[in-house]
Amino acid sequence: MEIGELPVKPEKLKGFRTLRLFGLEVAVMDLPQTVQWIMGKIQTGNCLMHADINTFKVVQMQEIPGLKQAVAAADIISADGMGIVWAAKLLGKKLPDRVTGIDLMQHLVEEAARNNKTIYLLGAKLEVVEKLATQYSQEKGQKFVVGFHHGYFKEVEEHQIAQEIAQCQPDFLFVGMTSPRKENFLFRQSKVLASIPYKMGVGGSFDVLSGMIPRAPIWIQKMGLEWAFRLSKEPVRLFKRYTWDNLRFLKLLLIEWKSPA
To answer: How far is residue 144's CA from residue 10's CA, in Å, rounded to a whole number?
Structure first.
């Protein structure tokens, strides 16, 4: 069965409204609402896995086996990127705003510190994740970060790493790796990580939050042009993603528009 054919989960069980986009249930919540929902669930003893989609990942889901299944398995799926918000509007649906992984992580880190929770950082290069862990430990207290590990490990090592993370018993696990690695890791190791209250993939957020890579100014973010800023900083790596892959996304959007759902 295709993921798009999966039955819609009752909204009363989730506690928030969703809309169907590209075969997935995307949360109709802005950033503050998402943070509030997550913290509320955690405080009542729930364990959550969070996923997000952007235009690039929608394209990836058509080509990479298992990625769509991994995303669909999440307890909540957010729209990370203005492209998804605009696509929903063109389809006659409405999302209040994008919920980017980096913004959500920043808010959750603050909430975690405020509520005496702990975090684990997995991903990026060793010097990057170590710098971010040190930064948080200095700001939030030495016991705030219960562990960290770089993201450059082999697939055969991931089970052992997941076990080590689980043994650290963090309240929040942030996975700073690219797609589909972060989604596959969280999905394949979901049983090992089941006792961790909150798991989330945050892509390249560690590089930005550690100060290694600059983020677009706020005014560029609000205009939905953060992709252009990133392209200007890494043209070789991101050119294909923001040209050819965006054209392929438009084709998928056309298919979605023509479908009866």
So the answer is: 35
Length of the chain: 261
Q: What's the pLDDT at 2?
A: 37
Distance CA 158, CA 212 (A): 26
pLDDT per 10-residue tile (average), the chain, 261 residues: 44 78 96 97 95 95 94 96 93 94 97 98 98 98 97 96 98 97 97 98 95 74 62 60 76 86 54
Q: Which helix (H) or strand (E) holds 199?
A: strand 198-201
- Residue 6's pLDDT is 45
pLDDT score at 226: 65
| Per-residue confidence (pLDDT) for residue 173, from 0 to 100 | 98
Query: Are the C-beta atoms of residues 27 and 16 closer than 8 Å to each other?
Result: yes
Rounded Cα distance, 102 and 199, in Å: 14
Closest CA to 102 of 208, 248, 218: 208
Per DSSP, the three-state class of 230 is helix
Cα–Cα distances in angstroms (integers) from residue 158 to residues 68, 125, 129, 133, 204, in the given order: 20, 16, 17, 20, 19
